[in-house]
């Protein structure tokens, strides 16, 4: 059974930084594509960043240059470093693993950016 647990969310002022992380247990982490999604109140869940097993990365236009996704295959972990945060980045951030056509989601961690 594959389980994902996020951590590191919290409250930060605009222009500040925050790092969220996700630990994956079960399965073969190194073969998974890993992604971060977010969902703000009243909005649909959207892709923030994705990193495939080979290392290629893609980002939503809204976070390019500010957010960085990274993974550690030894710790079965993926992180999202968020810099120059804006109030519109406020959302619940979810970690997702994709492997063999299956999607696995974490429970989410709240990130709140104040003015």
Give an overview of the whole structure.
By secondary structure, this protein is mostly beta strands. 0% of the residues lie in helices and 56% in strands. It has strands at 3-7, 10-13, 18-25, 33-39, 46-51, 57-59, 67-72, 77-82, 91-99, 102-105, 109-114. The strands form two sheets. Strands 2, 4, 5, 6, 9, 10 and 11 form a seven-stranded mixed sheet that branches. Strands 1-3-8-7 form a four-stranded antiparallel sheet, with no helix packed on it. A hairpin with a 2-residue loop joins strand 9 and strand 10. The protein is globular, with a radius of gyration of 13 Å. The mean pLDDT is 96.
Distance separating the two termini: 41 Å
C-alpha-based Rg, rounded: 13 Å
Percent in strands: over 45%
Number of strands: 11
What is the helix tally? 0
The sequence of SSEs as H and E is EEEEEEEEEEE
Helical percentage? under 10%
Low-confidence runs of at least 5 consecutive residues? none
- Average the pLDDT over all residues and give the rounded result: 96
> Biggest sheet: strands, sense, closure?
7 strands, mixed
Instruction: Tell me, briefly, the overall form.
Output: globular
Helix and strand content put the structural class at: mainly beta
